[in-house]
Amino acid sequence: MRDLGQQNFGKLQHTSKNKIIFRAVVFLIIVGGVFYFARSRFSFSGESGSSIILREAPRGLTPVEIDGSIEDLEGIDLTTQQATFEDVKYNGQATATATRSFGGGTYILTVDATLPDPVNVSYQVWLVGGGKATPIDYMSGSKTSWSLNLRSLDKYSQYDGIWITLERTKDSLSEEHVMEGSF
């Protein structure tokens, strides 16, 4: 048997305190890491992912005087037109509306369509005029609801026709016409 009187219990207690402190430090580091990761991945403050933060304007601002009257201010008149479409593929089952506004160097085009679900192909919008067709962009959507929104410099207002085509390859050649219309 061992003689317990020869044992150094003070040293044994000292090493177990070191282990407890080491474990506590490791635990705090892990908890801090989880908190940091969760805060960086998830928004707990109600802010959106945008870098724009809206704040209330400072109090006590002084209004700015405008020389002349409001009637003297010049605005830009936008021309707004609606397109009428004809279904050339689905025997009247497809419908679409298009609206364009242009003026002051800006062109805005909105196309909304109810079209059959294209399996593994895309719908594309084209503007037509002067004997040439210009591809605009592919429509986004799913199942039967498709749309396109474009806002750009005015380089399309001279086109008076609009097509929606079914595209199997993404190139600059129009393929299968679905809807044809004019402004």
Automatic annotation (TrEMBL):
Stretches that traverse the bilayer: 20-38
Keyword annotations from UniProtKB, A to Z: Membrane, Transmembrane, Transmembrane helix
Protein name: Uncharacterized protein
